[in-house]
Each structure stands twice: as C-alpha cells, then as structure tokens.
Amino acid sequence: MKTAIIAGAGPAGLTAAHELLARTDVRPVVIELDTQVGGISKTINYRGNRMDLGGHRFFSKSDWVMNWWQNLLPVAAGEDVADLALTYQGQSRPFEPGAQGGANADEVMLVRSRLSRIYYRRKFFDYPLKMNLATVGNLGFGYMAAVGSSYINARLFPRRNEVSLEDFLINRFGNRLYRTFFKDYTEKVWGVPCSEISAEWGAQRIKGLSISKAIGHALLKPFRSLGDTRQKKTETSLIERFLYPKYGPGQMWEVAAARMQAKGGELRLRHRVVDLHTEGRHVAAVSVRDEVGGGVTRIPCDYFFSTMPVKDLTALLKPADAEIARVAGALPYRDFMTAGLLVRKMRPTGKGAMAAKLPPDNWIYVQEPDVKLGRLQIFNNWSPYLVADPDTVWLGLEYFCNEGDELWSMRDPAFLDFAARELAKIGLIDLADVLDGTVVRVPKAYPAYFGEYRGIGAVREFLDEWDNVFPIGRNGMHRYNNQDHSMLAAKAAVDAIAHGASKKAIWAVNAEDEYHEVRDGKS
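The chain above was modelled as a monomer; its predicted structure follows.
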C-alpha cells in the first residue's frame, strides 16, 4: 500500500485523508503539531465553555461539501426544519433530520439563523448595510444623501484598474461609505492601509456584494423560501441560515479524525514535519519530530500534502532560485487573539437592540475607532451547547495583531483586563459582571495580500514542479479560504492522484467563476 504524509489536521488535511481512504489505495499519515485537530476550525474548551475561533458557518455552494458534512454530522432530529429542502445537482428533495450518519444524539448539526451587525457610534447598523429607516436614523438624512451621491459617482466614474482593495471597495460602495464603514475596520484587521492590500482579497472575500446587491436582497426577501440551507444564488455575506455542529466547528473535525483512524488512517498529534528528503522534484521521505519525546522518525512516502505555511514548505524544499526563497520567506500574515469572556449579562444598548441578557447577533463588527477590538462573538447564539451555564453570556473578543507586538506580548491577565475594559468603554458590558476569562493566540491565522504577496505566482509555479507535493488549505495555499474552499482543494488534490487530474485544479478553487458571484467583471 502507498503512503501519503499529510502535514496538518485541519479541514484540508482531514478531508484529504478521508478522500484517500475512500477513493485510492493510499494510506494517510496525518502529522499535527497541536494537541487537537481542526486547525483554526477547532473548538477550545475552557471550563465547559466552548470557543469557536473566528466563527464558522457550515454552508457551501458546493453540493459535495454539504453532503460530506452531513454524512459525518446529520441535522439533529427535532430541529425546526419543516420548510427545509436541500437542492442537489439542480434538483430539490425533502431533507429528513437525523436520517443519516451520527453515532449518537450529540453528533449532530443544528440549523441556525444568521445575524451580524455593525457597531458604530455606539449604535447598531445592519450588516450588510441596508438602505432603510434604521440606517437613515443612525446616520441622518444629510449623511445618507452624501452616501448616495458618492455611490452614484463611483458607478458613473469607476476606478478602471482595480489594483488595491481601496479601488475594489470604492467601486462597489462609493468613497463616502468606504471611509465610514470599510477603511478603518479593514486597516484594523490587516494593520496596513487599504491602498497597499491587493484587490484580490476583496474578490475572494467580499466577492459580488455591493449596495445594489444589498438592496436587491432586501426587496426579494419576502418572496424567497428559506428552505435551501445552501442558498446557492445568495451572496456569501447575505447568507441567513446555516448548519452548525452542536459543540462547535471542532466537533466536525474530531469526528472526522476518529472515523479516519477507524478506517486505517493514522494521526500523530504533537508532531512536527522537520525535513523533506527529495529525489529530483519528488519527495521520497519526511522526517517527523515527536514534540513530547523529542525523537525524529523518517517516514518514506509516495505523496506529501502540505497545509503548513507556504513559507515553511518552500524552505523545506530548498529552492535553488534565491528570489523564490526570498519571496516565500517574506510572505506576510496577520495573527489573531481571542479573549473568551464569561459575563452575567450584557448591557441594554439602544431602543429594542437587546434581549434580556444579550443581543441576538452571532457576531458584531466593532468599528468604533477608540478601541482595538475588531469583532465580538456571542457564543450563546451559535449554539446553546457552547455555554456551560445558560444563565451566563459567553463572549469572544477578537483582536488582529502581529506576533510579538504589544497586544500579542501582553500577559493573559493583563490582556483579559484590557479586553473587558474596551467592551465596557463602548457600553456593551459592565465590568462588575465579568466572571471569568481565557486567552487564545493563533499565529499566521490570516495569509495577507500585500507586501511580497505580489510575487506569489512564481512561488506557486515552483511548488507545482514537484510531482507528488500538494499544497492545500488556507496557509498551504496562502489564500484566504473558507473551510469549504480548503476541503475542495483537498478533493482536487486527491482527484489528481485517483484520476490523474491536473494539479492546477487545486489553485482554481475559490478563484473560479462558479465560486464568484460576479462574472465578466459585472456586478
């Protein structure tokens, strides 16, 4: 039997392992540095309170991905899905909760409603922005008139060459709205001006969303069925219903890992790939170090799947071209910190904005310029099973930073105090209601689209020269993929082995017209 070494037990790595077992004679050996699987899609358990790092909605425009998920975790019996129908290959059929998979009642997914809003000027705004009375009331008629004029000007006189993210956003929202709701927040996320970020980031993350699409969505809403969970013709940012594992996204990948091992695959936690042994443009063996015991094992392999950062993979492959080595080594990333904060309740803010203890949002984009907080997750609204005590509110305060900077270097107690004070400063909690907290740091969470990213093409060509190397996943491709994109990249890699398909299909994921709602440059 042939062997594939898979570096990383996130969505891409575990999907590749499953697909190899299902469709080839290749046995996967998955190498994971962490103590648990899931990558950035893992679930952190802190004293019975579970954290989702970044917020993972389980929906996809891919029928294959939706089937893959539901074969592992079916929708829970008893969920209110009377109108739910899933559409496969253009055909619709009723969906029966609990009819597939699931070893027990806990291995299920819930049907969740999506609500996210913007918090700005100590007020809540719809996200995506809607041209409604609430927005007019928050901003004022004069400001809205200026927004409308700016948008019309952008449509009549667009920036012809969309080089930067600033170009991309102004063309779709107008300069006034861009500066109000996009510029400061995006620069808080990435730490550099929007004018220095590639427009490719907007194409992959914001896709076809614009004011016209948001207005159209609002006008059509009363006439749409809520039945199709995947909502294939709905913009990614406008999805209003999604599936979610009962105990958070990591549950999906914990189940995937367990079943992969039951079928003959191998998983080594707390292990690191430290060297690649090559013959020409072929990886013949991989050296793996046990981070607990310290021993190094050399494992012969027929294939190598990499979800490690492109800069690390390239360094292990030792390119002769110094420029490729330099570009790969300098690829930028943005790091991420979450303060998990347990509170008794949240403060009522604005007329009708809050329920008794918490707002109805899954997450809130915090665009207040006087705090560093980027986004606030309310885990109670993702799944009630994420919270140990239902009489408390479990929050995730998300910060974007660089490894080693002032935020990253704060000791945990100081960072928790800092985060709690920021949330109190903008009026969402009282400090007296804080009960407990924890801090999670995620290095290289976001591959960045600026700096040496402009040379990524040559690095990709170098990686493609290796006949049995398959870069997959967010960091493995240095592409801001969602987890379903990472899974599709893994599938494309296995297709190349099972059917002799082109490796170029891997790079086409999250770049094809069918995945972008805008075609031929039109919105």
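The domain at 2-39+252-329+450-508 is CATH 3.50.50.60 (FAD/NAD(P)-binding domain).
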